[in-house]
Amino acid sequence: AMVAVKMRHGSVFGNNTAPLLAFTPCAMSNTVSSWSQYASLKFVSFPVQTVFKSSKVIPVMIMGKVLSGTKYPLMQYFEAFLITVGVAVFSLASKASDKESTTDTKGFLLLLLYITFDSFTSQWQNKVYSKYGKQNIDPYQMMLGVNCSAIVITSLTLIYSGELPKVYEFFQTNPAVLQYNIITAITSASGQLCIYYTIKEFGPIVFTIIMTTRQMLSITISSILFGHTMSPASLFGAAIVFGVIFFQIRKKYIAKSSPRV
Questions:
Q1: Are the C-beta atoms of 240 and 83 separated by less than 8 Å?
Q2: Distances (CA, A) of 176 to 3, 135, 180, 185
Q3: Is it the case that residue 17 has pLDDT exceeding 90?
Q4: Confidence at residue 101, expressed as pLDDT on a 0 to 100 scale
Q5: Does residue 241 contact residue 51 with C-beta atoms inside 8 Å?
Q6: What are 87-122's pLDDT values in tens digits?
């Protein structure tokens, strides 16, 4: 990001319209959402987590109203409600025993934490674009600002928790992990550029819908590879979620294709 900003703008920080502190809130929320997302995998299966995250549309809309005063049509709220119902049906149908219900409660709280902070992240980034001008901030500057704050936050957390030496020991014991970290960093950076561009040009709601539609593939792959059972009720819940999403896509396509009078 630093190299790209330097090449495009002639300076890493000198020509940035938005101050670095403007990116700190979304860096903090992104860090918390990532932690809670990974932690939830200890208590819920990946398909449950994946479909549960499809309900992010409502929190994103609420967060948009809180942060920016954005107004959404009633039909859009209803569609978001149907997605939430589908998620609830899928989650309840995926429970297998009373023992699993206890761990599901912990997983539910972690997923709730994830959704809240993740919704804040995209809406705050959209607010930064709106406040300082989309023409003044490109995806590279957004990535640089967010990651600079994220590095400080995660480093201080590792030092405070005393886990920094453990990270060093882990890399010493498993040197092959470094190549996977490099690959992850490259793919993550590429994905971030697409995310920031989508939020900048189309807004956080469209971005959330795009991220939701890709969950169908994740659910299918996870169920095949790890043997997750999906009951008819859970399939019905998933059908509601993705049915609404594809309806939204079709509705926007028809509206765009219709000739204007």
A1: yes
A2: 27, 42, 7, 15
A3: no
A4: 47
A5: yes
A6: 777 766 765 544 444 456 788 888 889 989 989 998
Task: For 218-244, give one letter per residue: b (16+ CB within 10 A) or e.
Answer: ebeebeeeeeeebeeebeebbebbbeb
**How far is it, in rounded angstroms, from Cα 67 to Cα 58?**
14
Residues with Cβ < 8 Å from 102, sequence gap 6 or more? none
pLDDT in tens, 197-226: 888 888 887 787 777 667 666 666 777 777
**Nearest Cα to Cα of residue 214 among 246, 255, 250:** 246
Buried b / exposed e over 91-130, threshold 16 CB at 10 Å, is bebbeeeeeeeeebeebbebbebbbbbbbbbbbbbbbbbe
- Phi then psi dihedrals of residue 19, to 5 deg: -70, 155
On the 0-12 / 13-18 / 19+ scale of CB atoms within 10 A, 50 is buried
Closest CA to 44 of 115, 118, 109: 109
Structure tokens at 111: 């997923």
Q: Considering the entire predicted model, what is its pTM?
A: 0.72
- Distance (Å, rounded) from C-alpha 121 to C-alpha 208? 11
Q: Are 136 and 200 in contact (CB under 8 A)?
A: no
Q: List all residues 6 or more positions away from 14 whose beta carbon is below 8 Å from its beta carbon.
A: none
